[in-house]
Amino acid sequence: MASLVSIKQLDVHTIEWLLQNAQSFVDYHGDARKGYSVVHLFFEPSTRTHLSFQMAAQRLGMEILDFSIDQSSVNKGESVIDTLQTIDAIGVDLAVIRDGGDWPALLVNEKLNMSLVNAGSGTFEHPTQALLDALTMQQHFGSLSGLTVTIVGDIAHSRVARSNVYLLHKMGVTVQFAGPEAYKTTHIENVEWVDFDEAVTQSDVIMMLRIQHERHAEHYEIADYHGRFGLNKARLNMMRKDAIILHPGPVNRNVEICDEAMADPRCKILTQVKNGVAVRMAVLDWCLQGGSDEKLVSA
Ligand code: ASP
């Protein structure tokens, strides 16, 4: 069975195939993966990702094992790797993991029979978020190639920015960053930093990010963040009529995005959430069939 840890492991053909399969899963309720089991290990808080992975597994007919970090032996000091080996020995087919650390590096040499799906790991990557963002853009614009996407905010601490850049570059999209000097990083290559006010008038997609306070060594506030780097009313009015607004959630209203922008028809945040279920169905299905691009299960 295959695992999905990073967007870097997917080639263009596989990304296209996953998006196509996700699209065909949008209204699918069946039992394509009946008899397979999944456990969700969420060591960091989550609403959208956790629930949509659960919904995805249910809509494929999978069996979901009950696991709560608080009630588990993790609380007695068991390591993530020992916990995973235990779950693997029980015979679970797939584990979905969210963790504050860079667990892919830890697991690289571990021999597990089950598949692993990265549901967000530290500042490393969040591959299913990038896939659902891509599906949302593709549905709106028809194709990804040639689009300009501006990602705004706390780039340095964002696993969402990383996975999006890796995916969008593969698909022929121009990605640019905007935001505070303090949130710049040199770790993501080939992305230009631009002035937000200029970018907002030209971009096809404005992707706003939450400030990742939980990943900052020191707590620091940037004065008038909303006025300087938020999608406020003035910038909303400057956006193109055919552009869209994305945000991975959770949104801090009137910090990254004003109420008017949240209510604007160009705001596709709930479409992203809906697409998250279909994309995660496609990813679970892909892992369980060994990562191969076989014919669409739902077709
Ligand atoms: N939900 C996204 C993540 O887990 C974004 C965020 O938390 O700001 O990375």
Radius of gyration, rounded?
A: 19 Å
Q: How would you sum up the major sheet?
A: 5 strands, parallel
Q: How much strand content do the residues show?
A: 5-15%
CATH third-level topology of the largest domain: Rossmann fold
According to CATH, the homologous superfamily of the largest domain is Aspartate/ornithine carbamoyltransferase
Task: Identify every distinct bound molecule in the structure, by name, code or SMILES.
Answer: aspartic acid
Distinct helical segment count: 11
Give a verbal description of the structure:
The protein folds into two domains: 7-125 and 276-288, Aspartate/ornithine carbamoyltransferase (Rossmann fold), CATH 3.40.50.1370; 127-272, Aspartate/ornithine carbamoyltransferase (Rossmann fold, 3-Layer(aba) Sandwich). 37% of the residues lie in helices and 14% in strands. The chain is built from eleven helices and nine strands. The strands form two sheets. Strands 7-6-5-8-9 form a five-stranded parallel β-sheet, with helices on both faces. Strand 3, helix 4 and strand 4 form a beta-alpha-beta unit. Helix 2 crosses helix 11 and helix 5 (127-141) crosses helix 11. 41% of the residues are buried. The model is unreliable at 295-299 (pLDDT under 50). The structure holds aspartic acid. Aspartic acid binds at residues 120, 126, 159-160, 210, 248-249. Aspartic acid binds next to helix 6.
